[in-house]
């Protein structure tokens, strides 16, 4: 049997790698390329990377013909599987990783295009045995580590890497499609100012950032304040994070973004966070969140009023509270640039007053619901006329809604349109309910005769007037018509 197997293998070598240097060449006047040798991966190599680079010497053709190469790679000897054909280069990198711990055989055939072919030697090698996940040290991504890692590769294990500490990323870290990382209890990752995290998966090979313990809050999550444009997640699944403890400057979340951070999130899934899915409540962000899903968390997103305009598509349902929670204030978090809030299928929830100034135009798309926590409201051009505006134009079938978290009259304050003279201020096909609290004179307050149009709007369950004019009995710059009152305690139009 051993002799028969050897004979069959020899015949297979002849049939697959026929050499034109034989006397029986189909083109007797042509000379096949000269002999050449394989360079890498060398014969007998062990612990070879799962995505090696193969290279060989150039084969010189005596007739001066252009030479191309076919590469054969297999776990059988001789190799009979052609993995690349008609290469002009003398290197080859497989598209997919090789199997862990397997022995491979490889060879190259040089061809001159005139039926002349020359076979290289056959080399064998064994890939590294990744029978289990690699435990990464805490300094794996630090610049002062001579063995720092900048690429996490997709291996053959179900879990590729374990992180059992709060890892500090101080370099440009890239994660390949299909990589699975599990974090130990209390572990996490911080992207420093001089680092970045680029995790680009695919729909078929997403990247997974999970936990060893499959429970909400098992690991802390990821914190980034990096401004690098390399920070990007595509097709990344984050689960069981949100324990907190990465910073005292933010609410806990699976992904926390510090002030001035840059990040792009596309087709990202965040599940089973103990707290928020994403927290980005500071200022001067360059952040976009597109077509992402956040579910089974406490609240999907907590961010500022400007970053809220950079959320598009996605699914934010299935959480304890399905809202996009927002913060504003008298400092850097005011809406001082023009911003549009899109209809995302869940309400926007204001946790502080929404302050609009610096000429910013706040546009609200039809169907958007904005709810206010108790005593909160909107203030436009509070101190000076800066030409800021609120543009809330719904439709009869898809109105915009301003409401309170608490469903009682006077739960939230008012839309306070103060010194603005922008002709773009418009409220049309809108429902305003449960306003008129915290000392407000009306659901819509007008200070110092601002320019404003209010039409086709319903005022419902208001603990004040519908419209209230301060510093004058009338507002000559107000255009109003076809508005409806339902349970409005103070009447339609009031003044000081």
TrEMBL record:
PROSITE patterns reported for this sequence: PROKAR_LIPOPROTEIN
Gene3D superfamilies: Immunoglobulins
Signal peptide region: 1-20
Keyword Cytoplasm among record annotations: no
Statement: the UniProt record of this protein carries the keyword Signal: yes
Keywords attached to this entry: Signal
Protein name: Fibronectin type-III domain-containing protein
Species of the source: Marixanthomonas ophiurae
């Amino acid at each position: 049997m051993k002799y028969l197997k050897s004979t069959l293998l020899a015949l297979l070598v002849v049939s697959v790698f026929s050499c034109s240097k034989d006397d029986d060449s189909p083109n007797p006047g042509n000379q096949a390329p000269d002999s050449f040798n394989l360079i890498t991966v060398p014969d007998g190599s062990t612990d070879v990377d799962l995505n090696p680079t193969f290279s060989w010497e150039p084969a010189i053709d005596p007739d001066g013909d252009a030479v191309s190469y076919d590469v054969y790679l297999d776990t059988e000897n001789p190799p009979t599987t052609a993995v690349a054909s008609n290469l002009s280069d003398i290197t080859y990198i497989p598209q997919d990783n090789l199997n862990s711990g397997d022995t491979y055989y490889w060879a190259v055939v040089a061809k001159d295009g005139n039926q002349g072919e020359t076979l290289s030697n056959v080399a064998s090698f064994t890939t590294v045995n990744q029978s289990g996940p690699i435990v990464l040290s805490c300094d794996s991504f630090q610049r002062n580590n001579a063995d720092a890692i900048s690429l996490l590769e997709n291996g053959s294990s179900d879990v590729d890497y374990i992180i059992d500490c709060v890892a500090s990323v101080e370099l440009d870290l890239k994660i390949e499609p299909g990589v699975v990382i599990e974090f130990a209890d209390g572990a996490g990752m911080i992207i420093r100012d001089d680092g970045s995290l680029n995790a680009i998966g695919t729909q078929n090979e997403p990247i997974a950032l999970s936990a060893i313990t499959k429970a909400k809050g098992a690991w802390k999550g990821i914190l980034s304040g990096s401004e690098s444009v390399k920070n990007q997640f595509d097709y990344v699944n984050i689960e069981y994070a949100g324990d907190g403890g990465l910073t005292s400057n933010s609410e806990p979340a699976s992904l926390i973004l510090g002030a001035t951070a840059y990040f792009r999130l596309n087709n990202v899934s965040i599940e089973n966070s103990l707290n928020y899915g994403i927290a980005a409540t500071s200022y001067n962000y360059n952040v976009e969140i597109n077509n992402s899903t956040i579910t089974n968390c406490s609240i999907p997103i907590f961010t500022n009023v400007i970053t809220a305009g950079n959320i598009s598509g996605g699914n934010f349902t299935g959480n304890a509270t399905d809202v996009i929670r927002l913060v504003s204030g008298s400092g850097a978090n005011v809406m001082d640039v023009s911003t549009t809030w899109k209809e995302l299928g869940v309400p926007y929830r204001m946790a502080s007053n929404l302050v609009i100034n610096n000429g910013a135009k706040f546009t609200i798309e039809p169907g958007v619901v904005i709810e206010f926590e108790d005593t909160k409201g909107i203030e436009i051009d509070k101190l000076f006329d800066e030409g800021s505006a609120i543009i809330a134009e719904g439709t009869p079938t898809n109105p915009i809604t301003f409401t309170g978290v608490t469903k009682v009259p006077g739960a939230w304050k008012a839309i306070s349109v103060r010194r603005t003279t922008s002709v773009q201020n418009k409220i049309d096909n809108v429902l305003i309910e449960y306003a008129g609290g915290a000392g407000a004179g009306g659901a819509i307050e007008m200070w110092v005769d601002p320019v404003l149009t209010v039409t086709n709007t319903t005022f419902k369950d208001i603990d004040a007037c519908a419209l209230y004019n301060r510093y004058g009995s009338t507002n000559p710059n107000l255009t109003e018509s076809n508005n409806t009152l339902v349970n409005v305690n103070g009447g339609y139009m009031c003044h000081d």
